[in-house]
Amino acid sequence: MSPTSTHSTQQQRRGYWLRTLHQWHWISAAVCLVGMLLFSITGITLNHAAQIEGKPEVTTVHDTVPATLLKTLPARGDGKAPLPVGLRGWLRDKHGIVPGDREAECSEDELYLSMPGPGNDAWLSIQRADGALEYERTDRGTLAWLNDLHKGRNAGTAWSWFIDVFAVACIVFTATGLFLLYLHGRQRRATWPLVALGLLIPMLLALLFIH
Hints:
Layout: H1 3-47, E1 57-64, H2 67-70, E2 79-82, H3 85-95, E3 103-106, E4 110-114, E5 120-127, E6 132-139, H4 142-151, H5 156-184, H6 191-209
Antiparallel strand pairs: 1-6, 2-3, 3-4, 4-5, 5-6
Helix pairs in contact: 1-4, 1-5
């Protein structure tokens, strides 16, 4: 094989990898663009949470569960069980409380249901003897909601899957970016010093200032 033919083959191989890496790079960038913006902003807000903490809003409800619904409560020995469908409908229609399929703790005297969510904490209790209902919800604001989404705190299975998919997209984005830097590195002398600097700075900060 002549030198010209060898050079042509190398150029074709290089062109193929460039096209493939560019394609995966922009696809992964499109997938994780909004998520990366969200997680970057909430990374800053989490880092300064003490300085920008909002004022919580507390909502309380006191009522009595109708006797017909009180009879449908799970038995005392059930341990944990979801609230009956009828009771869930009554809570939703009358008070806007949506317990979903969460399981309540069924003790001898009461049912207690914890309902934490991103940016809020809520709970309700129902006394077996007289049906007394007590509900409390604490909302910490939009910023706390976004911060909890960042952490995946009480955000549910669907959001957990989104975080995993987003993380994979970020890995593809950074890995393809690294290979593109390698292919273009000869024409850009500052490439590897900057990459090394990006590695060195967090390492030094961790070693020198984190104890």
